[in-house]
Amino acid sequence: MMLADFSSFKGVWTLGEQREGKISSVSYELLNWGRGLADKLGVELSSIIIGYKIEGVEELIYRGADRVYIVDHPLLERFTPDAYARVLEALVKEYKPEVFIASATTLGRTVMPVLAARIGTGLTADCTGLDIEPETRLLLQTRPAIGGNVMATIKTPNHRPQMATVRPRSRKPLPRDPSRRGEIIFKEYPEDLYKSKVNFLRFIKDDTLETPLHEADIVVSGGKGLKGEKNFQMLHELARLLGGAVGASRSAVDMGWISYPHQVGLSGKTVTPKLYMAIGISGAVQHLAGMSSSETIVAINSDPDANIFKVCDFGIVGDLFEVIPVLIERIKKYKEERGND
Length: 341
What we know:
Helices cover 26% and strands 24% of the residues. The protein has helices spanning 25-41, 58-62, 81-95, 106-119, 232-242, 250-254, 285-288, 320-337, and strands at residues 12-15, 18-19, 22-23, 45-51, 67-72, 99-103, 123-127, 129-133, 138-145, 150-154, 162-166, 183-186, 218-222, 245-248, 275-279, 296-301, 314-317. The strands form four sheets. A seven-stranded parallel sheet has the order 7-11-6-1-4-5-12, sandwiched between helices. It has a five-stranded parallel sheet with strand order 14-13-15-16-17. A three-stranded antiparallel sheet has the order 8-9-10.
């Protein structure tokens, strides 16, 4: 069997993201991943950004990109998977990157599978590690498998580009270097490429999420142990005091106690905060897969045999309805003594 010739595929790409024309922080995190891969391969690093009236694109150069491709058009102001995928497909077919990575955000998780299907390549989702195999120049894509119980390393030897999404906040952005120089290329395509079958009606902001879950340094999550919607108010108060966001298990969302954007796990969001508090959560493997990469995990549960205690750094076996009020009062007292710092 003849091996495919991939000599025409060169370079590492990252998919940048923007919101209302402003570049999102995940774009800079990705550049850190991309820079390491590009340096090992000895190739250039490019960032792709799609939208309308995008500001501050030179920041992508300052944060590690050698080249930035911009597709800017009024029809691309709102993210629509079909239009964005067609634009990315056109770029990939024209420039042929050997590696293309995105963040495992809502945008990345939605558009990258569509793109992979359109161009006929593989995609590894929710990676926690990316590296280059020196002998083959293959992308080593590491991610949790079997509910987080094992770590699998995946290769894409027979197709290009090699594609993966990586968990947000898994790396810090590179230091800003205004002395860096690079190339910014504005691409234009026929307008039909930008048209979507999706009819945008309106955007309804979730007022219960002041900070996007995947961007929060602290996530306070609740599960079935909270026993009802009203008891989530305790978690909202605790999260406000800590400067964090509120998450939830699938069971809490399914019972209507809190909305889906708060859901953490395989069927929800993957989070990697500095502190993750699992309150009244037993620790189903599906939930662990969405938060097990957190820096520090604190679990509060009345069941000493709960699976969550196998992965936490600190555990409290007790009644959450006794523990949380005391914790809230202690934090309030501490903040008062410190002048609400």
